[in-house]
Amino acid sequence: MFLKNIKINNFRNIQNEDINFSKNINIIYGDNGNGKTNLLESIYYTTSLKPIKKKHKLIHLINENSKASIIKSTFENNDYKEIIKIAITPEKKALIYNQNNNTNIQSYLHKFKSVLFTPDDLMIIKGEPQKRRDFFNKAIFHLNQYYYSNLIEYNKILKTRNKILKDIAEGDKRQLAILEIINEQFTDISLKIYQNRINYLINYIPILINTVNQLSKKDFLPYLIYKTDFNYKNRDDFLSKLKSKQKREILYKRTLTGPHFDDYKIITNDKEIKFFGSQGEIRLFTLAMKIAHIIYVKETTNNYPILLLDDISSELDSNRKEFLFNFLKTIDSQIFITTTAINHIPKLENMDFLEIKNGKTNWK
Ligand SMILES: Nc1ncnc2c1ncn2[C@@H]1O[C@H](COP(=O)(O)OP(=O)(O)OP(=O)(O)O)[C@@H](O)[C@H]1O
Ligand SMILES: [Mg+2]
After folding, report:
1. 360: CA distance to ligand 1 center in Å?
2. Which of 38, 120, 138, 278 could tie 12 with a disulfide, CB 3.0–4.6 Å?
3. Residue of 9, 10, 11, 13 with the most ligand 1 atoms within 8 Å of its CB, for mutation
4. Residue 251 sits in a domain of what CATH number?
5. Is residue 74 a part of any domain in this protein?
6. Residue to substitute in 17, 36, 71, 312 for testing ligand 1 pocket (most ligand atoms within 8 angstroms of CB)
7. How does pLDDT run across 195-247, given as a tens digit for each residue?
8. Number of domains forming the structure of the chain
9. Do residues 273 and 267 touch, judged by C-beta distance below 8 A?
């Protein structure tokens, strides 16, 4: 499946563009501030229904002189077409998929997969555990459509549990019996989430090791550790550990542990890369993490996600760039790459060049 056409109206600084894309590598180039990332984001938004930056609100996506934004895209898959219309107003967004405005969002998102590379990816390693959980949550969802339902259920139970802890702290001792029941539910959903995460890592880690070794000239011995307070393999153990924290949790009026606190520790050569890696090594590792995920998706579903690379080539030294482009050459995926300097991009077959100036595009 590939994105054949996109019509963008009043999305950020792009006012009115109608662009046909080829199946292969699309290079989007232009000077700073002309709309390269915005164009990439219109594709990212279509495939994830989220802005690139988590903190951006709907109103930030709409052109500042306009009241709404519309992105219409046509994907082609062998013989049939998929038509998607997304309308964004400051209050809400609407998705119309093949003329149906009642689409199941999870199955839609599971179908239209994209993987985005941005200069901010460093934060997957350097940032808070939330960044790593977000990365792996999305990755796991690409391979297991029902994983998000598990997370939604978990968050619901977590919210209820927090409310009960607060009520107990404020004197409502009758809630102690309800807490027992919620603890059982909390345990079951936590074990499910853990199982999904571990199933992903079991297959992902060998691909990651292989990718890191190809990318790096040094002998990096990478591995990943799932970091948690619990023994997820034993339900009773989990429950009693949860109980042992109860007094403290009542004091703090909230749940202090669980899958929403768990982390992924990334080790190279016995050291945590977060604390020991150089900037370049961390960048290389995040790149390897994404490439390994893409390979895993292809191995499992027989399809590559759409790749969106924002300004990546200016960040990499020539060896890494060579590896990256050699990898991109071998994959049968539609790719979008933005750059300020076309001379940083090795010229490959099946590459098309789109210039963007002030939000207006032109094929070259
Ligand atoms: N809602 C909006 N309405 C109008 N303009 C916007 C909106 N949001 C962002 N912009 C503008 O879009 C312009 C282009 O942004 P974009 O990030 O796409 O540039 P870029 O080509 O990727 O630049 P760089 O090379 O620096 O990454 C910016 O000048 C920004 O101010
Ligand atoms: Mg940009």
Report:
1. 12
2. 38
3. 13
4. 1.20.1050.90
5. no
6. 36
7. 999 999 999 999 999 999 888 766 778 889 999 999 998 999 999 999 999 99
8. 1
9. yes
Residues of the chain with pLDDT under 70: 217-218
282 inside domain: yes
pLDDT the model gives residue 77? 85
pTM comes to 0.94
Atom index in ligand 1 nearest the CA of residue 31 equals: 25
Residue having the nearest C-alpha atom to atom 9 of ligand 1: 12
Residue 341 placed within a domain? no
Rounded to whole angstroms, how far apart are CA atoms 191 and 233?
8
The whole-angstrom distance between residue 43's C-alpha and the CA centroid of its chain comes to 14
Residues with CB under 6 Å of ligand 1 are 12-13, 30, 32-38, 60, 62-64, 311, 340
Q: Give residue 35 CA to ligand 2 midpoint distance, Å.
A: 7
Distance 149 CA to ligand 2 centre (A): 33
Residue 221 covered by a domain: yes
Q: What is the predicted pLDDT for the residue at 280?
A: 84
Which atom of ligand 1 is least distant from the CA of 61?
A: 1
Distance between Cα 357 and ligand 1 center (Å): 11
- Ligand 2 centre and the CA of 76: distance in Å? 27
The span from the CA of 131 to the CA of 89, in Å, is 28
Angle between the 175-215 and 129-143 helix axes, to the nearest 10 degrees? Answer: 80
- pLDDT of the residue at 218: 67
Range of the domain at 258: 124-134+146-297
